[in-house]
Amino acid sequence: MSKPSPPWIHAIARGHPESLLTCLLIFGNTFSIGAFTVLLPEIGRSNGLSDVALGAIAGAFGLARLLADLPAGLFITHHLRRAVWLGPLALALGIGLLSAGGPPWMMVAGRLLLGLGHSLGMLAGINLIIRHGPAHRRGFVLNAFEMSGMLGVLGGIVLAGALPRDWPWHQSLLVASSPQFVVLGLLPALLQTLPPDPERRQATLDAGGARPARQPPIRLNRPMRARLQPSPRAAPPK
Fold it and tell me: Has residue 85 got a pLDDT over 50?
């Protein structure tokens, strides 16, 4: 006998699996945010970075969020499906660059990619819930989505803090961010629940898909045309 799921999971996923998948995706994608805050002092000590360089690496994430939010919103308006998988892809590439142990510019590039990926992921998840989530539980699902992201950040902090102290920081970062790579397996199932983007739907119609039936032209006979024509005004009396 299978164990019943908790009520809050049933409330999110009932009839709308994309809502639950979106919450699980943002939960895994935010582990790296919490893990980085724990490992930041060790990153500075291990690489002999100055305060300016360490500040540039730490602040690159927020700078990317600031610069990417508005363009990402415009992109998501027409390409929601692409944003759903581009966000996690940018996060994975950012973790790869950051944990490679390269020069400071490579770490900055990794943090910029993480900021871009997080911006795409958050905005795509919010738009997905607003467009396709349950209308009668939309506020609840949006709060669950935000809570999932916060729990992911806390999970990254706890996981990074629980790892052995003698591990190198880039190894700890990879392990603490591993849920981010695990939830990548949810993307195919999430994309299957979404309709095509407007441009793709129009391209399908242009390629010979279903089109609305063309209405035949209305033909007016002579009495109908005479009835629709305005009657001539009577001449004023002389």
Answer: yes
Length of the chain: 238
- CA dist 156 and 117 (Å) reads 17
Task: Tokens for 52, please give them.
Answer: 């300016």
Cα distances (angstroms) measured from residue 26 to each of 16, 44, 106, 152, 155: 17, 28, 25, 7, 12
Question: How many Cβ atoms are within 10 Å of 107's Cβ, its own excluded?
Answer: 26
Closest Cα to residue 83, out of 131, 116, 108, 109? 116
The per-residue pLDDT for range 18-67, each reduced to its tens digit, is 888 999 999 999 999 999 999 999 999 988 989 999 999 999 999 999 99
Listed by start position, the domains of the chain span 8-195
Q: Which of 92, 96, 48, 66 is nearest to 182 (CA)?
A: 92
Nearest to 179 by CA among 159, 162, 161: 159
* The model scores a pTM over 0.70: yes
Distance of CA 52 to the CA centre of its chain: 32
Q: Scan for tokens 């242009």, then name that residue.
A: 206
Task: Classify domain 8-195 at the CATH class level.
Answer: mainly alpha
